[in-house]
Amino acid sequence: MATRRRVTREKPLSEYKRKRDFSKTGEPSGGAVKRGSKRKLRFVVQKHAASHLHFDFRLELDGVMKSWAVPKGPSYDPSVRRLAMEVEDHPIEYNTFEGTIPKGQYGGGTVMLWDRGTYEAEDGGEEALREGYDRGDLKFVLHGERLQGGWVLVRIRRGEGERRQWLLIKHRDEMATSKFDVVAEVETSVKSGRTMEEIATRRGRVWQSNRAVESDEPSPTRRKKPASASQKKRAAPRRRRPTRSTT
Ligand code: MN
User: What spacing in Å lies between the alpha carbon of 148 and ligand 1's midpoint?
Assistant: First the structure.
């Protein structure tokens, strides 16, 4: 319920909107927040080469994307704890974003859609997610293309009063492994197959405003890659279902 959440005093997305000049960046301005849908909750991970490279980890909850900046990105190794700094909620429309934020704007730099999919509470429904988020112990299962299985975000004391800091940790389950460095192995967009460099150098992809969000799917020829290479780059360590075609 919205009434029990600590962010209810501010309007949803107010911090997100305050930080951005939507006459200069083509990032979504964030429309009406829709709650109460019964469909599956989404998650995305965006690789973001801003002043410091990081991965933006976003979980849908109550009509917004709860967001954390994870400098080193996620790890499948349960013994690895990755720092995750909570940042402002983002609009759900942000989930399809890939491209370049103009220099000088908030978060200026290249953004790659690195993973996407649905997620659910490890145990229970949305109320369990809400409680976990409020309590600082959020357990969930990801159904992405690169990230799968159980994970936890644990809030730590440091950073209290300013930006809240969490740790992102893989649960010990059948997907866990210390033998696959997903951040090092997977260097292409889950959406377009492009590398950061290809996204950055592609002209006309800067998210200027006053332009409708264009399709940033590359032309069919750009997407073709040797099957073996693209399979390797796309796959999670052990998959339980086939990847969809990249072409
Ligand atoms: Mn970011």
Answer: 22
Question: Which pLDDT tens digit goes with each residue over 119-158?
Answer: 999 999 999 999 999 999 999 999 999 999 999 999 996 6
pTM, entire model: 0.77
For β-strands 81-90 and 99-101, DSSP reports them as unpaired
Q: Could you list which residues have their CB under 5 Å from ion ligand 1?
A: 48, 56
Dihedral of the alpha carbons of 140, 141, 142, 148, in degrees to the nearest 10: 130
Residues of the domain holding 132:
2-24+39-234
- Beta carbons of 45 and 55 less than 8 angstroms apart: yes
Domain annotation covers residue 240: no
Ligand 1 centre to CA of 229 (Å) is 28
Spacing, Cα 1 to ligand 1 middle (Å): 28
Domain assignment of residue 129, yes or no: yes
How many angstroms does the Cα of residue 227 sit away from the middle of ligand 1?
31
Q: Is residue 136 part of a domain?
A: yes
Range of lowest pLDDT (67-71, 77-81, 93-97, 160-164): 160-164
